[in-house]
Amino acid sequence: MKRLLPLAVVAALSHMAPSHAALFDDDEARRAITNLRTDITPRVERLEASSRGQLELANQNELLRTEVSKLQGQLEVLLHEIESLKQRQRDFYVDLDNRVRKLETTPVAAAPENPAPDPAAESRDYEAALNLLKEGKYKEAQAAFDQFIKRYPRSAVQPGAHFWAGNAALQAKDVAVANNYFKNVLTNWPNDPVAPDAMLGMANCQQALGDAKLAQETLKKLAERFPDSAAGKAAKQRLARKP
Q: 55, 117, 216, 238: least CB-packed within 10 angstroms?
């Protein structure tokens, strides 16, 4: 019995040893797996980051290729337009050269002595002269009206042009010239609406030139001829002030 007891203990220990060894192997495996994960995780993260970078680079390259393709298409269009423009320019020069040659070989017709006036230009010139007078630029206004008189001899506003030219000359102290303008109105357009004012202006010029007697006679004629006009009424008032 005493001899059997050690054998039983040995047998029991023999059964227990594999179980302990298995438990020890599991711990080692867990530690190995943990260590492996610890070592692999940064590598995987680096690999994933590298993959994302490569993917972004691939996307950027694709976008660049698309943009380059678009630019190439636009460049081809521009080159085509430039070439078309050059061709049109060459055609234009050819046509212009042909026209010049025709003009050189075509006899020049004589210009009419009295070309038809341009109503728009006539109106602009008259208004420009009036504006100079309104701005107090009397010498410039006189010159502008004088040019108008010469440029448009058949204009319907010739009486007004002479009258305002006379006013501009009178304001510029060129009394003799002003008197001639007023006199021309009365000589050529005696029944024009500006005739009474021209006669009053002529009386003013005569007074300024020192001929008071002639000025009085002109005022009397004005009052008798145009009694209802503003100039005629002014003449009556001036005559009434004289003794």
A: 55
pLDDT at 82 over 90: no
CB 219 within 8 A of CB 206: no
In the predicted model, is pLDDT for residue 4 greater than 70?
no
pLDDT tens across 98-116, in order? 443 443 454 444 444 555 5
Q: How far apart are CA 152 and CA 165, in angstroms?
A: 14
Q: Does the reported pTM lie above 0.70? A: no
